[in-house]
Design brief:
Oligomer: single chain
Low-confidence stretches: none
Strand order of the largest sheet: 1-2
Shape: globular
Mean pLDDT: 88
Radius of gyration: 13 Å
Structural class: alpha+beta
Strand content: 15-25%
Number of strands: 4
Number of domains: 1
Length: 87
Amino acid sequence: MGDRNWPSDELGAVCRICGRYLDKNGLPCNAGINERIMAIDLDVLKELDTVIGVSASIVNAQSVISCARSGYINTLIIDEALARKII
């Protein structure tokens, strides 16, 4: 993934929300770093009226799909190329 701090492929991490790593199904990965993050709890995001995810570039397709599956975001802003890739 190009980020030296990204969890190994064995964890299946494809994206981050509030610093927490999620797998392709939008479920939190069992990454030790998730326990050390000082950020809003992911369950709190599900209680909020509006949570916006923003992304661009077709290389982020799997990440955006994972975020959408997670239920942590309910509004998505993406560019046209990424939208076409996802559809």
